[in-house]
Fold each of these.
Amino acid sequence: MTIADETIDYIGILAKLELSDEEKEQAKKDMSTMLEYVSKLNELDTEGVDPMSHTFDVHNVFREDIVTNGDDRANMILNAPESKDGCYKVPKTFG
Amino acid sequence: MSKVYETVIGLEVHVELATKTKIFCGCSTEFGGAPNTHTCPVCTGMPGSLPVLNKGVVEKAIAVGLATNCTITQNCKFDRKNYFYPDNPQNYQISQLYYPICRNGKVEIEVNGQKKEIGIHEIHMEEDAGKLVHDACDGASLVDYNRSGVPLIEIVSEPDMRSAEEVIAYLDKLRLIIQYLGASDCKLNEGSMRADVNLSVCEVGAKEFGTRTEMKNLNSFKAIARAIENERERQIALIEDGKEVVQETRRWDDTKGYSYAMRSKEDAQDYRYFPDPDLVSIQISDAWIEEIRGKQPELRAEKQARYKEEYDIPEYDIDILTSSKKMADLFEETIALGAAPKKVSNWLMVETMRLLKEHEMEADELAFSATNLAKLIQLVESKAINGTVAKEVFEKVFAEDIDPEKYVEEHGLKTVNDEGALRKVVEEVIAANPQSVADYRNGKEKAIGFLVGQTMKAMKGKADPGSVNQMLKELL
Amino acid sequence: MDLMQLTAVELGKKIASGEVSVVEATQAALDRIEKLEPDYNCFVTVDKEGSFAQAETIQKKIDNGELTGPLAGVPVAIKDNMCLEGMLTTCSSKILSNFKPTYTADAVIQLQKAGAVIIGKTNMDEFAMGSTTETSYYGVTKNPWDISRVPGGSSGGSAAAVAAEEVPYALGSDTGGSIRQPAAFCGVTGIKPTYGRVSRYGLIAYGSSLDQIGPLAKDVTDCATILEIISKHDKKDSTSVDREDTDFTSALVDDVKGMKIGIPRDYFGEGIDPDVKEQVLAAAKVLEAKGAIVEEFDLSLVEYAIPAYYIIASAEASSNLERFDGVKYGYRTDSFTDLHNMYKKTRSEGFGAEVKRRIMLGSFVLSSGYYDAYYLKALRTKALIKQAFDRAFETYDVILGPVAPTTALKLGESLSDPLKMYLGDIYTVSVNLAGLPGISLPCGFDKNGMPVGMQLVGNAFDEKTIIRAAYAFERTMSYKRPTTLRERGL
């Protein structure tokens, strides 16, 4: 399977990765190799097999609706690259 | 001949569920609060944190599903919806695509006396995003994650609506159902109920619908109606010009009265949904569904029938009293405190409605307690205060939920029932107004009204007008 | 003898008896680390000051009888993808080069409660993506048996730190073999528990449906002891299972009589190093001689495990790693024009090549039009692989095979060809796909003197049976220190 430039650009938009031209060429090659390799699964007949997300039969794991968390803003926001007035600061989002 | 177009509308309604905690962590859902003070590693997307589902969210979602005639998906799951935006701390939203909790429901609406069914395609559970505030001074945006992880249900209708009136009737119906269930307060202005409008137009009788757009940022019923009208016109104009309607998401600007496309090349709208591996499936047994059905509170239609039977009040009044859960609750709670249903209904129907209108408020925003209304009614019934004073006191109850007994006491508003005191004042008024006295004695019956007014004024309104009238007649 | 030559349990006994103080044990670990780190680079962070503070507190608790467990006072190293409150937690990535969590991974909390002295955080492949520990932003970790070779990965720092006797034991995590393969390459023992056995809370996710935390140590007794401590139901992890059968040390019994052991014939075909094959089969003979019933059988679907694994793990990773965006924590690029440019530059500068490769692949297989063909196909394949194991466990108690087709490769050898590196996971990934427990333990050496690992796979939540088999085998073969340590008199 050959990977078009557009595909790499499109995946770059989805994954928020910006690749240099050199990296793009490498990514095309790598992805094409991998997709070809994983297409091996097409040999398998999986008709009627349900997709399995978890291997164990665990369900209905719930929390009760009780407030357990306090305010840890002062600590948490220390990790923010930029903050202001107790908020995480980011480049302008629109307008 | 110009063509006739039909508007085809479907709604995606987001409702914040009234749980104490967020959908996947033990943070409070309380509205307001300083930025990021209701956050933890889970709802700020810290690495290594994991979601655990709030049982109350599932129960409320099932309750809404049952009340809107949905089928409950007995094996449902959460999926991740992947997109980058700063209000979305993980850059994926935990939502439901493949197995939403409710499907195939319907509600009945009524517009201009015509009844109509609106289909509900599905209801799914998801987490709300944080809030972005735009910081004008340095051209940046600030993120507050207090709302991040607040539980939402999204109610997706079928494209069954044809006009803004139907849309509003449908929203009103949903709002009432959900409020009656106690699943949400459904306030459009605070964002606890939000509607996105999917709209397309086609010629009447066309076999297929036209291309639809999705309209966001609609914060009031008025905005919704305006946006629908505007978008209908915009699409018709495009078609008449021989242009195509583009399938896109648009944002409504209610102050400017127009919408614009939220397009960006960085916004591919390819959400790469897949089952969230951090959460396990939810198995909803028949027994669980029946338990929730059994606990379902009385809904509006049931309430209306009961009021008619129990309280013997006019249908029109019942309609108004039940048009908001808040109002109906106040009505019932006040009666439970011993007030006569007719009296309570009167206070709600007349004075309360007047003040709501005057303050441009919705019934949902009523903030006074049944206790204080009941006390007020008791004061009137026992003739401790007269009607005029009562109205005055009620304004205080309405605005500040004051205790009427205390207020009347503190402000000395009690009717004076001391006959001696009243007689003294009446005698003074008669002495001070010889002209009116003469008029009355000469047969001008009306003159007594002036004398009653003067007496009331002298008594600072604290007399019972009936008693004053009687005493005047006696002394004249 | 250096205290660090002891196993964790042996050292714990000396501490409990008062023969060795917790501070002495801590000092011994820190001395070794200072001496050997320039050669091996097992650690990203060493918390010297904090270690002594912990040591003193723990000593007091031991003295007044509050702490009586087998590992009280024993130093430990934690893989750097587990959060530790206030301590740098990097996942060996530039993008988390300044991240200090405000919370601690549950598995680490369990160790703290048991009186562990946390010495520091070990090096790994960036975000656990790799099998060599060469994709770390903080430099390559070397194999203590031969510093021209990789320690394996992704828990290479943890495995090498144990082999180099810098710490008696360490925690690792295993998504496709990341505990078992470095254990094999470094000649130590490691367990990947059943999915759900150990809480994942605070483990920075790679492939959430596959990740499990587990121990790396010198022997089976240590591993069983550690696993017993960290296996605890956690309400903060929806996939953590509430079970009572966590008394793993009760399985330390030298008896495999009648135990049915199956050897998948399909594990010994093309691609396996003849020395590895020989040593693993010889190990099976040893167990047979001790009374186990050993048979060969066809497991089937072996060649489909890697493709399914790479689709599932990459897809989950592409989503799990979206949160690293320069907004809430971690690295943010210096200059940018707007929001999306900030995202792209931050992520492109912050992630290394292998991580980007997997994010791209994962985003692609989930994208519109490909989801069914790749992702769902992989989940269906996973179901078939699970069925194949279920069938095998109808007949066998344990599945025995190699951990990896080769012993430790030379540095740089697999980086040039990612697919080749992926193929090295052939015997381990299916165990993660099926959610089963696996133990990796040394069973011999190849012609270069590099350790060979054997893998024993058990049925879901049946760690005890593989612990018993591993313990019985281990009785026949004493622990070997890396030859270089012996030669250098270390």
Amino acid sequence: MTQSTQNKVDSKQDLINYLVRLGDDSIVLGHRVSEWVSNGPFLEEDIALGNVALDYIGRARLFYGHAATLSEDGKTEDDFAFLRDEREFENYLINELPRGDFAYTIVRQLLVDLYNKHHLQALKSSTDETLVAIAEKASKETSYHCRRSTSWALRLGDGTQESKRRMQLAVDDIWGYSHELFEVDALEQRLIDAGIAVDCEQLKQQWLADVEEVFEEAGLTIPEATWAVRGGRKGYHTEHLGHLLTQMQFVHRSFPGATW
Amino acid sequence: MTTEKLELFEVFVRPKRGLDHKHVGSLHAEDKEQALEYARDVYTRRTEGISIWVVKSGDICASQEDDRESFFDPSDDKPYRHATYYPLPKEISNM
């Protein structure tokens, strides 16, 4: 194999890994949000949360599907979603945290939705055409998600004493998981250099400005504590992901090849 | 959380450009902005519409069952309000 074909193969494998990561972020969060279905605070919100979950799961299918097409080894989106184990998932940890109470869910959604807003915007400039198409489609959903999570954050942050207490508690709990969203590893750096991946480090200031704006109006404060948990992109997870995967993958593994 | 403190809204969806908004149902929400978002989630998930109206149910002034006779009976004996009451001239064959 010549040096240049070897490089080509490597960069294709890089892209596949990158797509799977993005798919992991979406499917894990989509599954978490789906846990609200039939547990929502009232019917209308229950359905709204179900819609958001479906948006994320749909997005995961697009990323996994693109990875499956590129991998040319017969793998399908289902293989990525249902037949990999915990250490093979490379989602950011913030997406796998339990759904918590409603305030917890809203704070996580707010932070992730605002992140996605900038991430998808940047992804639209990728040199990979399929990624651009996915970003176009997903950013419409994300505009709606941002509207929802922002208005809920204002409602609850600026609501009763109890709702404010729970919101701030959630912020204090989740904040330390937000830092790895803006860290780039070697794989992503290679793809950034090739014009394919998003340089997450560049998103931090815009994201922070958005969060501060909502927090100020909602009466929430960014924690002073500087602890940070990281490891999702390396496959090091919290104790929560394994439990999530057992539920999410159970049917597929118990009935291989089953169809509706 | 319950829906006790939420307000009831009626939802109208316009299925296509050129058609009228149609009443599709009702829902609970805190205020009109939230009602519009929920209307989108509850009633247009399968791309049923291109425009949504929401209105507080309490703001609708509706005719009552008791008013039925005074409201609607008088039109029964006025057949000349229907186009079919009038005989068509022979020259017009296709109507």
